[in-house]
Amino acid sequence: MGYRTHTCGDLRASNRGETVQLCGWVQRSRDLGGMSFIDLRDRYGITQLAFNEGWDPQLLEQARSCGREFVLQIRGEVLLRDKANPQLPTGEIEVRVESLTVLNGSKVPPFTIETETDGGEELRMRYRYLDLRRAPLRDNLIHRHNVGRLVRNYLNDLGFLDIETPFLIKSTPEGARDFVVPSRIHQGEFYALPQSPQTFKQLLMVAGYDRYYQIVRCFRDEDLRADRQPEFSQVDCEMAFVEQEDILNTFEGLLRHLLKALHGQEHGVFPRMSYAEAMRTYGNDKPDIRFGMRFVELGDLARGKGFAAFDQSELIVGIKVDGAAEYSRKQLDALTDYVKRPQRGMTGLVWVKHALDGTLSASVGKFYDADDLRAWAEAFDSQPGDLMLILAGGENKTRKALSELRLHLGEELGLRNPAVFAPLWVLDFPLLEQDEESGRWHAMHHPFTSPKPEDLALLDTDPGAVRANAYDLVLNGNEIGGGSIRIYDRGIQKRMFSLLGFSEEEAQKQFGFLMDAFEYGAPPHGGIALGFDRLCAILGGAETIREFIAFPKNNAGRDVMIDAPATIAPEQWRELGLKPGVSTPA
Ligand code: ASP
């Protein structure tokens, strides 16, 4: 019969009377004197095992000696429970155990392996294989598997080919630092781990594989930020003979397919917004549009009345919070503190309350009369009961601070419901951004992104104004994907590299292979990559990607379970031709 006839999630009342074999781990046991129960767990569920002195005193003794997380194999008869447990799918039955084999013992686990655990984050990371036994993590991994399956089915059905690309490559500039791997055979030389398969997928287009995808690991040596992983997965895609519109339709179709299959939600055509509009109306290139609070600029309505903080500022901009006119002094002070924190650096927050009786009162009432405030209220389209919150200062800083305040209020007011999904395309990103200190231009997406043809002429005169055929897919305030139509002309690609400050030799040395390929019939092409970990997290109603990765790194980029990164033996240094602490050949 093998180890088992059923899993711990299988048995129901209809199995009553059957003799079954189960294997699993002891989640907990309850000893009630003459009888004892064990909850036996495997990845499929939990089944209650029953032991009774009257049936078999020796077996009862044996059961009592099994500690938490012992691995058992049992054989017994399925009985109906006296009192069903509606919380468990197997709650109607229990198994009256007739024989028990301890397949393996277990030390007392360092934390409780149940849905609610007492283990701290670090401890659970160290014993990840125990944490993974818990139902919430198990469900997350099953969810991840399902998202992957749905993605593959969707793309396979559209004729996309899943093609692997190498991990040991030469640097691809995606804006982060590369992880490098020293070559033993070619001492002094290094591979780089791909930040994405970008150049390879473009070469696949040149090769004629006009629909490619891969759920692929990418590596970026970025400074540590909360909820970033040095290695992460992307749904990486590329298509040839397409325009931006084709890509948008194909991949909004993919997300629609996921939302339907996973949540039963029907979504129509996704809204679209230009980057410029997103920045103007939300102060953010990945706005959470589950709620309103769009930015309203007051400009001349607020200048010239003697309020220096407004008169001297580049931008005066606010949001309206529906029904919040009742906010207390204390609540308003807390919001003021929030925008004044050093990372936001605002000097203050101006509020205007629109009372239910229609009267308007403001924190800057000294400077503005009732007519002024009425004009503001109109600009905000404020109704009695609403609250207006206004910031002023340097343009970028103020937009950013107001965006954060908006998200903070959204959170506080429960407007960011994880069961509500609000996808959005953000389009027409600038091609380049300028480093304030060095004055150097950087590709905002990556250097292979095509400028909008109508903006090509600006490349020489006003590079900052050139828009790209680049797009981001945003879901609930998170960028879940980004891509672009690519350059496929050697001349334009060369010009791009030179704009980005590459000398001709450098460009040839680093990307000659791609520019050479463009001389052998490169088709027009474009693509996108979706952050798979984050996609799984958001679709799973959570925001921490770590909970959706089987073996993640911690926030310091360490794997605390296997203890990596770690030092290597002197012998390994020697073999690689490296000296400890020195990166040049020995
Ligand atoms: N390679 C890009 C990225 O990783 C995505 C793309 O342009 O397709 O963000």
Short description:
This protein is an alpha+beta fold. Helix content is 28%, strand content 24%. The strands form 6 sheets. An 8-stranded mixed β-sheet has the order 6-9-10-22-21-20-17-11, with helices on both faces. Strands 1-2-3-5-4 form a 5-stranded mixed beta barrel.
Structure description:
- The chain is of the alpha+beta class.
- The chain folds into three domains: 13-104, Nucleic acid-binding proteins (OB fold (Dihydrolipoamide Acetyltransferase, E2P), Beta Barrel); 140-272 and 424-570, 2-Layer Sandwich (BirA Bifunctional Protein, domain 2); 291-416, Gyrase A, domain 2.
- The protein is 28% helix and 24% strand.
- The protein is built from 16 helices and 24 strands.
- It has an eight-stranded mixed beta sheet, sandwiched between helices. A five-stranded mixed beta barrel has the order 1-2-3-5-4.
- Strand 14 and strand 15 (360-362) form a beta hairpin.
- Helix 4 (135-157) packs across helix 6 (244-263).
- The longest helix is centred in the first third of the chain and has 23 residues, at 135-157.
- The chain is globular and about 90 Å long.
- 34% of the residues are buried.
- The model has no long low-confidence stretch (mean pLDDT 95).
